[in-house]
Design a protein that fits this description.
Layout (H helix, E strand, L loop, with lengths): L2 H16 L6 H16 L3 H22 L3 H20 L4 H26 L13 E5 L2 E6 L12 E5 L4 H13 L6 E5 L5 H10 L6 E4 L9 E3 L5 E3 L1 H11 L1
Helix pairs in contact: 1-2, 1-4, 2-3, 3-4, 3-5, 6-8
């Protein structure tokens, strides 16, 4: 019955529309639309492939670049849509066997890419924790789990980074080289579980200011910069353009 996968594909599209926009938002919406179309036309094999593949790509991206609540919800809906397509298919043997192989391949490739990009530590998803604060040599360290966190910190730009992200280190070297005390910007490590590794990397690069950690990044990847006037810059190239003009 096409209704089950259609509902989940539409839900995945809705989650992507409501959540923060990034590089994978429009491909994800296209996948949701294609999955809906295949489901309506009873093309359950391709609906299952799209559902499983989209979920695998989303999980791999979040493993590499940081947890995103809406992205995680969309990934769950895509996976449910794929399973719904499997359940709705009346021809189980050959088609579902192929779908299972596609799913296994997608997960294997996605996991490999995530490991290659993120490194052994990964960017693990964590549950929200109560806000705590401490001090470290050269500056304070703070973690927060506020859902409606401020986009800037005391009039400073906020740079979201992961300690396992090569492009983050590339951006950090320039930011720290121009403003090692963080007078005009502040790093935020995501997710919270990587705070210690993130602080160690920042100190090793010469940063002496404050460090914060949050559950997730308000975009679909890192590095991500939120300037004091509320503008967003995703990716090392755009972050570095801002740094060279403002630091």
């Amino acid at each position: 019955m096409p209704g089950i996968p259609v509902v989940f594909f539409l839900a995945a599209g809705a989650a992507l529309l409501v959540g923060p926009k990034g590089l994978l938002t429009w491909p994800g919406l296209a996948a949701a639309a294609a999955g809906t179309l295949f489901s309506v036309r009873n093309k359950y094999f391709w609906a299952a492939v799209i559902g499983a593949g989209s979920a695998a790509v989303s999980i791999a991206a979040q493993t590499a670049f940081g947890f995103c609540a809406w992205c995680g919800l969309a990934a769950g809906f895509f996976a449910a849509a794929g399973l719904g397509a499997v359940a709705a298919s009346g021809n189980l043997p050959r088609r579902l066997g192929a779908a299972a192989l596609v799913l296994a391949a997608a997960v294997a490739v996605g996991s490999f890419l995530a490991y290659a990009v993120a490194g052994p530590g990964g960017a693990r998803a964590v549950q929200p924790l109560p806000a705590v604060a401490g001090t470290a040599a050269g500056g304070s360290v703070t973690t927060t789990a506020e859902a409606d966190r401020p986009s800037t910190s005391g009039g400073k730009a906020v740079l979201y980074i992961s300690p396992w992200c090569p492009n983050c280190e590339r951006a950090l070297r320039v930011f720290i080289g121009r403003d090692p005390a963080g007078t005009k910007w502040e790093p935020v490590v995501v997710p919270q579980s990587d705070l210690r590794a993130g602080e160690e990397k920042l100190r090793a690069l010469g940063y002496t200011g404050d460090v914060r950690a949050e559950v997730s990044v308000p975009a679909e990847g890192v590095p991500y910069l939120r300037s004091a006037d509320g503008r967003g810059f995703l990716g090392a190239t755009r972050c570095l353009e801002w740094a060279r003009s403002n630091l």
